[in-house]
Write a structure and sequence with these properties.
Elements: H1 3-10, H2 14-21, H3 29-39, H4 43-46
Helix pairs in contact: 1-2
Length: 54
């Protein structure tokens, strides 16, 4: 699947998908769930929040 295909399926621009992939943009919760749904995986397999506890 191309970045453009994913962008079309989740309703964002290709540039947004690129920014998410590069860690320059954190998607909304809705977009994050849409991405996980497209790939058929749980949300935590696509996105993880860094553990800041030492």
């Amino acid at each position: 699947m191309t970045q453009a295909d994913l962008a079309d399926r989740i309703g964002v621009t290709r540039q947004t998908v690129i920014a998410i992939e590069r860690g320059r943009y954190s998607p909304s919760l809705e977009v994050a769930f849409q991405i996980a749904r497209v790939f058929g995986v749980p949300l935590d397999e696509v996105f993880q929040y860094p553990d800041t506890e030492a």
